[in-house]
From TrEMBL:
GO terms for cellular component: cytosol. Coiled coil: none annotated. PANTHER family: ASPARTATE KINASE (PTHR21499), ASPARTOKINASE 3 (PTHR21499:SF67). The lineage of its organism: Bacteria, Bacillati, Bacillota, Bacilli, Lactobacillales. Residues 392-451 form the ACT domain. Its EC number is 2.7.2.4. Gene3D superfamilies: Acetylglutamate kinase-like, Aspartokinase, catalytic domain, VC0802-like. It catalyses: L-aspartate + ATP = 4-phospho-L-aspartate + ADP. Pathway: Amino-acid biosynthesis; L-lysine biosynthesis via DAP pathway; (S)-tetrahydrodipicolinate from L-aspartate: step 1/4; Amino-acid biosynthesis; L-threonine biosynthesis; L-threonine from L-aspartate: step 1/5; Amino-acid biosynthesis; L-methionine biosynthesis via de novo pathway; L-homoserine from L-aspartate: step 1/3. Belongs to the aspartokinase family. Keywords: Amino-acid biosynthesis, ATP-binding, Diaminopimelate biosynthesis, Kinase, Lysine biosynthesis, Nucleotide-binding, Transferase. ATP binds at T221, D222, Y227. It comes from Weissella cibaria. GO terms for biological process: diaminopimelate biosynthetic process; homoserine biosynthetic process; lysine biosynthetic process via diaminopimelate; threonine biosynthetic process. This is Aspartokinase.
Length: 451
């Protein structure tokens, strides 16, 4: 049995759903279908998940939400209309669920946002099951609650509870049946809706692949492969045919938005291969992500990822390496302010602490810097807000002498400075810190040097 996940781009409108149904029908192994909410139909379109976030904002503000509800329902209505099916009952049910959202009491704004935004997937899975049944398929809507998926953690960045896997293993699917499961959302033990972080339908697919013991996790999107570089940065970059779990994890973490970085973890635990494929070109082989890759390619680098979501705190103090407890006190300050750090490369007198800045407000940043300055008295302290990370990843980089100079020399020739270089514990990647305004140029220079 395969778990097959379709992203929002594959479900944006009726003509896309028609392709999706043809893909599901083409292989009887495709029995567990995970769906996202309808995504963008054209460049400046708005994803249904983002429309739901606007609906949540308007509900919080006490505004009239009739227009936004109509806009959301219209997306679903257009999809049913494409198939010439009777819309009355299904659209009535979905409209009711959407309207009810603003009448419920939530324990916090975070739970409110999670419930509103999770409905993009919840409504879409019901609609798709309805359309498929209308076309004669034996399709059934199954909620994450029916599957026994229970989450903990924060409402908008939930984590699956390990005991969910025992319940999933007992879930029965009939031999000729297709189940349609909404991605992105799940429920807490108290029955509250929570979501994984944005793009989290990939995570649902991975959890189901592990929990239902799938042979393959197929992830359908709008590109024919995972490319060596984000195609927004380089036109027609090289396609990756096979990559290892480790390579995908590192590349996804640092900006390969095509597959969620947390989604690799459940499949690693269950050793299930992933096939990333294109809904618009389903016969193309796509990219296989496998437990271990044979390194046959003479090229050591598999991919280059970059992300500007970071900030860095640079500290300089002579004899920092000799001072007992310096790092400990910094970590205590961060913990006190509820801030986690991503990396902390250090030298004899210097240290750079890299943060995911999406978790830090201006007030938190000021408080942390003030406290470090007062308690640790560094000679120099600098907050670098426009920090980007580039990750150069490849199993073939392991133990390869000269890999660094192949990259560093052309970067320096191009006038790109590297405030941070970290070869770290992972033998298969090189992490480079650059100023955000230089990041795309740096990626292009590295790509030209190694591909
Ligand atoms: N290295 C990469 N290879 C392929 N696509 C990438 C890469 N990096 C970023 N992307 C982007 O990821 C997009 C697919 O991810 P996403 O928009 O989340 O799809 P979906 O709607 O299917 O979930 C592609 O359209 C592409 O623009
Ligand atoms: N719809 C959610 C979850 C998701 O995975 O979407 P997509 O498959 O379109 O990336 C989001 O926009 O975050």
């Amino acid at each position: 049995m395969n778990v097959i996940k379709f992203g929002g781009s594959s479900l944006a409108e009726g003509s896309q759903l028609e392709k999706v149904i043809a893909i599901i029908s083409a292989d009887t192994a495709r029995q567990v279908v995970v769906v996202s909410a309808p995504g963008k139909r054209f460049k400046d379109d708005i994803k249904v998940t983002d429309l739901l976030a606007s609906y949540a904002e308007q509900a919080i503000a006490g505004d009239d939400t009739v227009a936004i509800q109509a806009e959301i329902i219209n997306r679903y209505r257009q999809i049913v209309a494409y198939f010439n099916l009777d819309e009355t009952e299904i659209i009535g049910t979905l409209s009711e669920q959407l309207a009810k959202l603003s009448r419920v009491h939530y324990p916090s704004f975070d739970y409110l946002y999670a419930a509103f935004m999770g409905h993009g997937e919840l409504l879409n899975a019901q609609l798709i099951a309805y359309v498929m049944r209308g076309l004669g398929h034996n399709a059934r809507f199954v909620s994450p609650a029916d599957l026994g998926m229970i989450v903990t953690g924060t409402p908008r960045a939930a984590r699956i509870r390990e005991d969910s896997y025992t319940r999933l293993a007992n879930f029965q699917i009939a031999a000729d049946e297709i189940i349609i499961v909404p991605g992105f959302l799940a429920y807490t033990n108290e029955g509250l809706m929570a979501t994984f972080s944005r793009g989290g339908s990939d995570i649902t697919g991975a959890i189901l692949a592990r929990g239902l013991h799938a042979d393959l996790y197929e992830n359908f999107t709008d590109v024919s492969a995972i490319y060596a570089v984000d195609p927004h940065i380089i036109d027609h970059p090289a396609a990756i045919t096979t990559m290892s779990y480790r390579e995908m994890r590192e590349l996804a973490y640092a900006g390969f938005a095509v597959f969620h970085d947390e989604a690799i973890i459940p499949v690693i635990e269950a050793n299930i291969p992933i096939n990333v494929k294109n809904t618009n070109n389903p016969t193309a082989p796509g990219t296989m992500i496998v437990p271990v890759k044979q390194v046959t390619n003479p090229r050591p680098v598999t991919g280059i990822a970059s992300d500007t979501r970071f900030a860095a705190l640079y500290l300089h103090r002579y004899l920092l390496n000799k001072e007992v407890g310096f790092t400990l006190r910094i970590l205590e300050i961060l913990a006190k302010h509820g801030v986690s750090y991503e990396h902390m490369p250090s030298g004899i007198d210097d240290m750079t602490i890299i943060f995911d800045k999406t978790q830090i407000t201006d007030a938190m940043r000021d408080a942390i810097c003030d406290e470090i300055q007062t308690t640790l008295e560094p000679d120099h302290l600098e907050w670098i807000d426009d920090f980007a990370i580039i990750m150069v990843v490849g199993e073939g980089m392991n133990n390869r002498i000269g890999a660094f100079s192949e990259i560093a020399t052309p970067l320096s020739d191009a006038g790109i400075t590297l405030p941070m270089i970290n070869q770290g514990a992972s033998q298969i990647s090189l992490m480079l810190g650059v100023r955000a305004e230089q990041v795309d140029d740096a990626v292009r220079v590295i790509y030209d040097a190694v591909f």
